[in-house]
Amino acid sequence: MSRPTPSPVYTLRGAGGPLNTLHFSCNGGTTPLLFSGSGKGAIHIWNLNTRRPERIIEGHSGSSVIWVSTRESADNLISQGRDMQVCLWDLGEGRSKVVDSLWTGSVGFCQGSLLETNPGTCLLAVAGEQTEEIKIFELPSKTPVCTLVPEDKLGMVMCIKLWQPDSGAGPLLLAGYEDGSLLLWDVIQRSKLSHVKAHPEPVMCLTFDTKRLKGISGSSEKNLSSWILDTQNNLQLQDDVTLVNPGVSQLCVRGDSKLLASAGWDHRVRVFGWKKLRPLAVLQYHTDMVLSVAFSNHQDSRQRLLAAGSKDQRISLWSIYNEGPDTG
């Protein structure tokens, strides 16, 4: 018998705008937190024990917040807004202070990507002022590292993922573009390593599993495109997943490499087994487009959650497939 359709374990309301981005901070002995960024410029810091906002902060002059993340700990927040600013926050000991900011010049919706390189330092990749360029900075110094611009006309950069391979080589960056292309960049050499056409439409989102060297991307059409990175750093297209309805806002792989979640324009969250891309569940709660999905990083696997943020201004929290063997 098939399992009954799950329901959210609880929901969070009061964000006051569409939920563009979600980020968990649940490891260690501190209070489990969920950060959310809204289309009205507010960042909510939700206490997952009380299920209420611990703090609400604003640093983008009312402009839509498109990305939030943390550096090293939950006290070091980074946020990106449509005001073309990336803000670095100090949230320690009750503070809510912007300690620095970085102007990107980007008018698009491309979310930044963060990679911790050494204790206290990290790399930040963001879309640049020119539509096809990606700029990489070292933080907290804001030192420019490089600018990556493809030779071919691929249109606007839509999504990026910065990561460090186990081989010891320099950081690599995956980027999806407006013409449906995926490019793999060598950050140190400032060179393109591989290029594939993954979609006929703009690449709206991508996620990459650095353990399995496998990724997946989505667009405004019905197909998710999966791909792998071979030992020569070549992108190779693999299987497609055909969705019932077109349009995906975001994709996320759980930290144990077992589950994939998609945020659908059809108001639904879909869950797949990451290994074989087998459909596992369709989560129905939201009344408008789902814009963001994130898996929690609880150390205890039984506490793991999936969060979904929607244009309907609500966040749904789900507890699914936290037990048993590989889900396939």
TrEMBL record:
<protein>
    <submittedName>
        <fullName>Uncharacterized protein</fullName>
    </submittedName>
</protein>
<dbReference type="Pfam" id="PF00400">
    <property type="entry name" value="WD40"/>
</dbReference>
<dbReference type="InterPro" id="IPR036322">
    <property type="entry name" value="WD40_repeat_dom_sf"/>
</dbReference>
<keyword id="KW-0677">Repeat</keyword>
<feature type="repeat" description="WD">
    <location>
        <begin position="283"/>
        <end position="320"/>
    </location>
</feature>
<keyword id="KW-0853">WD repeat</keyword>
<dbReference type="InterPro" id="IPR015943">
    <property type="entry name" value="WD40/YVTN_repeat-like_dom_sf"/>
</dbReference>
<dbReference type="InterPro" id="IPR001680">
    <property type="entry name" value="WD40_rpt"/>
</dbReference>
